[in-house]
Amino acid sequence: MPDQASAAHERIPDVYPDPAVDRRFRAFSVLILLTGIAAAVLVSFWLPLTPSADLIGTGLLLVLAFLVVEQLSVNIDVRGGVSWTISFTEIPLAIGLFVAPFQVVLAAHLVAGVGTLLVRRVQDRLLYNTGAEILEISTAFTVLTVVGGVVQGGGPPWFAVFAGALSAPVASTLLALAAVYVLGRRMRLGAATKLVSRTLVLGLVNASVGVVGYEVVTHVEHGWPLVLPLLGGVSALYFAYSGLLREQRDLEALSEVSLIVARSGRRAAARPATGQDTANSIKVDDWLGVAQRIRDQLGAARVVLRLRVDPQAPMKTVVAGDELPEEVVDVEPAGGRADALLRLPGSHVRHFRRIDALPEIRQALMRRGAQEALVVPLRSASHLLGVVEAHDKLSRWRGFGQADLRMIGTTASHLATALDNRRLLATLRHDAYHDPLTGLHNRPGFRQLATQLLADRPGAVMMRIDLEVQSAVSDALGFAWIDRITIAAGRRLRDVLGVETPLARLEGGAFAALLVDADLDRAQEVAERLSASLSTPYSVDRLTVEAGAVVGYSSSVVVDGVMFSDAAGAPRDGAVGEPDVDELLKRADVALRSARASGEKAKSYVPSMGQIFLRRFQLVTQFRQSLEDGQVSVHYQPKVALPRREVLGVEALVRWVHPEFGRLAPDEFVPAVEAAGLVDVLTDFVLDKALARIRKWLDQGLRIGVAVNLSVRSLNNEHFPDQVQASLERYGVPAELLTLELGESVVMADPARALPVLRALHTLGVVLAVDDFGTGYSSLAYLRQLPVDEVKIDKSFVFGMGSDLGDLAVVRSIVELGHSLGLVVVAEGVEEDAARDQLAEMGCDVAQGYLISRPLSEERLEAWLQARTTRARGLRDETVLTLVS
């Protein structure tokens, strides 16, 4: 008999079964009932009742027999919450066909069948089962009468009874298959044939037992004892067969529960990472399907799943079967004690009956309206995942048995394992797409989420945000405190952007966000708010740490008509102005670097920025090859002593003639080379060229020194003095002919770190000079501590010396300060005779600038020396070069 699953109650709207299917089955049930009533009326007119005194006793015995066999039944499950029942019904039916009229047998069957359903509180299939029972009895008596008329006088009288008893399960099976079709359940022909054959085999056995038993009892003297072994043997076979069916159904149930969880897991894995990917994200109807499957398998009035994969989250309650009282839907009241059935230790099955349970358990069962319950906790190694509860057995009067305990225990074990695996996979997936420090998305997670959003709504703005904390502050606080500042910055970004805006920490203090359905005006407003929020001081214990922020952003819709392409270089569906996530991030990063270079807090990407940074990228990637190909060379600018105009040395200046971009100024490519970490290569190249040049002059009897500029990277390299010493020895150059010039800001960026390197170089005898003096932030105290030999006045002061009294005063002060410290003072940017004469009058030691000479290549420098200088014998018997007027 079809067993339509009752509606499920839970805290989330009901999704099972499908209301349309439910209405269709109810209409089908009414049709079956009306058809059965019509058939019963027709058979009653065909086979009218003849009253007799013994009909009441016969009817009561038949009711008792039908009630007994209703308790000894096997439910064969059909996937989707439908089952029909196989029992010993054919045995009392066969006896009834022998001894009672149609009306009595029908009444007895209805009283037993419908009464059993009512006692079991099965109301949703009452109409169908009532109609099916009427049709079963009507079919049996119709076949009995027809076959009896055919075989009358020519065959055994019991054959008609046998045919009638066997026709009842055939009719029931056909109705059940029709019900399966109405419910929309897919059932293969092989499975339907197997179920029909099982029903027919058992019907054949039962009908045979009923007929043989009646014939033996009525026609064989003292024959009834022979029937007892027959019934015992059939019962043993019957229960063995039902056990096999039960085991098969248990395995199918276990498999189906695991598949439901696995399928839901695959669906969750296919969704973008959103930060909510836990095992609790399984769809409601999936959990409801699991609960319904367990309920069908146990034949329980109600199954309750309470699930909590996240230890910090409340339990999700899902109910299949009878309504659960509202007071126990939520069993974890805020601040209260958990329900008794949720505090059970271990993970094994408990079977509780209200009649003999402890008071606390009895109260829990009473609140649920249950007489008995199977309860099994779902546990992982670390915490409680949930609880499975099954309430009140329907199919047997004695309640849940050992088979039920084994079944729910095994199912719960599989379910707990599946849930724990899902939790672990969800954790791994979350960790793979989220930043462990801030909890925000990481780069892969942000790319996945942003890609989907851009596909759905292409109009968006990508933002790149950099938190800037001074390196001195970072070094003083350490990584732990910088991490705390980064976490606080992530919270501030989330507060400004809101929870719906995708936000990621890319690395370090670099963040990214995607503004959906935003234009550039709104992006500029948001960028300014972000910069202001991140620039607010951070409290670190009793300290207040200052920080800054720079924002660059790029729109996914541009107006320059550029056709964006995918990673393979193919146009994206012919769309204009729809770059992918990586392209948007790259452009936002370009805008950020442009903002940082210009000192702005926020800046929007424009296509010309890309050309600038593309050119810098090309320069960096081609630099090493350019050194080998001879595109990079060293020029030299002479330095002359004042006032005697003696050529003391030259400054080595690097030049690059690029085959595509032409002559490049050092200010264009040197910063890019430094940022790319290639400045050591450049320094080594210039140093080798300078020492080789000094060696040639020494070979010519000339003592002309060369000055080489150093970067902060060289001062941070503790091995740099050893490298300089090795180079001096390799070329055989006296150390005093090599001058190393260091920008004032370079020296003062980290004086404590630079000081040991400077002292080691000074010990070698190398001349150390502070370049661009007066433009930085050095103090007299620091200058006194540094082992330097020269200061070079920045050319900006020398240029303005003739027209600005302030610049003139600065130059005079630097000359006096340098001399008071015993330093040689060099003036850069000397371009006029008046400036040279003023410097000489102040006592400046050395002049350098266009008045003397522009930077010259090695060949032109030799020609300049020959044309512009005269040779004379110096005081120490060395050759001295003096400028010709």
From TrEMBL:
- Taking every annotated instance into account, which residue ranges of this chain make up the domain EAL? 616-869
Classification via Gene3D superfamilies: 3.30.450.40, 3.30.70.270, EAL domain
Pfam families for the chain:
EAL (PF00563), GAF (PF01590), GGDEF (PF00990)
Against PROSITE patterns, the record matches this protein to: EAL, GGDEF
Is Membrane given among the entry's keywords? yes
Q: Residues in domain GGDEF?
A: 458-608
Statement: the UniProt record of this protein carries the keyword RNA-binding = no
- Protein name per UniProt: Diguanylate phosphodiesterase
